[in-house]
Amino acid sequence: MRHSVRTANGGGGKRTNEAHAAVRHVLVDILCGVILLVSYTCAGSASPQRSPTPNPHGALEIPCDDCHTPANWEPLRAALKFNHDHTRYALRGMHEKVKCTQCHASPIFTDVRKNCSDCHADIHLRKFGADCAQCHVVQGWFTSRQQVRNHQNLFPLIGAHAAVECEACHKAFVGGQYRVLPYCSACHSREFKETTDPNHVALNFPETCDSCHSQDNWFGATFAHQQAANFPLSGAHAALDCQSCHAGGKYKGTSSNCFACHSKDFQKAAASHIAAGYSTACATCHGTATWIGAAKPQGRSPILSNKFAGGR
């Protein structure tokens, strides 16, 4: 009996082992399938992370909805959330009003330069360098600095010239070439021609305004009387305004004879010059400082009194 059982048990154990082996193969096949399925699934879900859709703006680490709406890429938001001040170039003045694409020609926003000449054409033909900020500010092209660098080497801006903008003098030159203006009439020709009191053209005045005028204003002009009219203004003559001698704005042809201006003084003198037969050439006895203390006429006593001098 024992032998039979052993035989029977031995045969049953072999079949059991074979069944277990078959099950193991099936399980291994199932497990490998599951592993492959999981690996494919994981690989498929991880693929976008390893190879995402390229950002057209390059390495830009800001949320898309800072500029775009969920509806579409374009148009952009009316009010962008993006703050340019957080970049290396803060927007000020007129730069705040331009569209992004006016500076960023490439969608890769970091691919942009920040020098003025990179965006702005140099209408001055490189005569003033590439730094627009030497003369201009970001509020606009026509807002220039009070003192343009290096202008002192060309034409010092003093008096009224210091208060005008560049275009007031340089507007006539096409292309913005701010070359030197060597003479006054380059800017003031109209004022020169239209002045009638006195008439600068009729009197053949020089076009060098600074011969008579200061750079502060047109008023209070001086005149090189001796060189231009051969009549030096000394003494009391130097204190008079032009109209005292040049009545009615008549400058050309004015007589330099004393009596032409002082005939009334001669005729009204307390001690009659006419009765005494004095010369009408005032300078024979008088200086230009005052009527008092006139010199002695030839063959007569010194004239010292106010009464004789007509109270002058």
What does the model show?
This protein is rod-shaped. The chain is 29% helix and 2% strand. The longest helix is centred in the N-terminal third of the chain and has 49 residues, at 2-50. By secondary structure, the chain is mostly helical. The chain has helices at 2-50, 100-103, 116-119, 166-170, 185-194, 225-229, 258-268, 273-276, and strands at 136-137, 140-144. Strand 1 (136-137) and strand 2 (140-144) form a beta hairpin. Among the domains are: 64-114, no CATH class; 115-181, no CATH class; 257-312, no CATH class.
Strands, total number: 2
Q: Specify the number of helices.
A: 8
Q: Termini, distance in Å? A: 178 Å
Q: What portion of residues is helical?
A: 25-40%
Order of helices and strands: HHHEEHHHHH
SS content category: mainly alpha
**Uncertain residue segments:** 1-10, 46-51, 301-312
Q: Mind describing the biggest β-sheet?
A: 2 strands, antiparallel
Main sheet strand line-up: 1-2
Measured by DSSP, the beta-strand proportion falls in under 5%
**Quick one: overall form?**
rod-shaped
Mean pLDDT across all amino acids = 75
- Please state the CA-atom Rg, rounded to the nearest Å: 51 Å
